[in-house]
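Sorry to interrupt, but I need a hand with the structure work. Please put the record directly below this note.
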Amino acid sequence: MTAFEITGASAADMEMIRGWADEEGWNPGDSDRFAFAVADPEGFLVGRLDGEPVSCVSAVRYGAGFGFIGFYIARPAFRGQGYGIRVWDAAMKRLDGRLIGLDGVVEQQENYRKSGFRHAWNNMRYEGAPQGGAPGADGVEVVDAASLPFGQLAAYDRRFFPEARDAFLSAWTGLPGRTALAAVRAGRIEGVGVVRPSSGASRVGPLYAANPEVAAALLRGLAEHAPGGLVSLDVPDANPPAAPVFAGLGLVPVFETARMYTGPAPALELAGIYGVTSLELG
C-alpha cells in the first residue's frame, strides 16, 4: 500500500520546486526561493508518495486578509491520480478566510473557476532585448533603489499590493545578483523595477511606473544588468498602456496567465503596474 503525505518544504525542496517550475517553462528567478521563504516560511507544501516528492504548491499568507497560491505542480508521471488536488486542498485550507489570488496558466483556469476563483485580468509575458535610446524620461532620474530610504520603497509598493510585505520586499530587492532601480522626480518615487537572473531571459518584476515613459526608462536601465540585455516580464492587460510600451521596445509575447481572485479584486493602482512581481507570489 502506498502512503501519501503533505509536508512543509525544506530548503532542498525549494530548490527542487524551482527546477520543476523551470521544466514547466515558467522560468522563475534563480534566487527567488530565498525571498519566498522570508515571505512565509511555512507557505510551501510538498506532496510525497512513499517519501518521493510528486506534487507541490505555495500558499503564502500576507497580513491578516490576503493569500496567494502558486507553484501548483504535479509531476508528469503522477498526474491524474489525485496527488495534485490533495496539495491544492491543503493550500486552500491554509488560506481559508482570506481573499486568495493566483496567476493561472490557460489549461488550469477552468479548474480554478470551479474552486471559486474569478478572472480579474490577463498577464502576457513579454520577452526580448529592449531596443531604443539611452534610459531617460523628462525630469526623472533613474537611481539605485538601495540609495532610497527603505520605508519610502515599502510605502510605494503598498500602492500596488493588497497587504504590506516589507520583509519580502527587502529580500526581493536586495538579494545578491539582483538590481533594483527607482525613478525619482523632485525627491518623489515615480517608478520601481527589479531584474533578477534566471535560467532563461532575466526576469523583471515588479515594474511600477507613473507613465509609459518612466516604464520604458526603467526597463532599459534594468536590461543593462541582464546578460545580452535579454529580459522578460509579465504585463497585466488591466493597464492598457503597458503592452504597447514593451512591444514598441521590440519585446514579443511568449506566455499567458490570468490573475484570478476568490472575491472582488483588491483596490490597486493598476495604472501604475507595468509588470507583476512574480507569478508565484503575486
Observations:
- The mean pLDDT is 94.
- The helical segments are 11-23, 32-39, 83-94, 109-114, 150-157, 166-174, 212-223, 242-248.
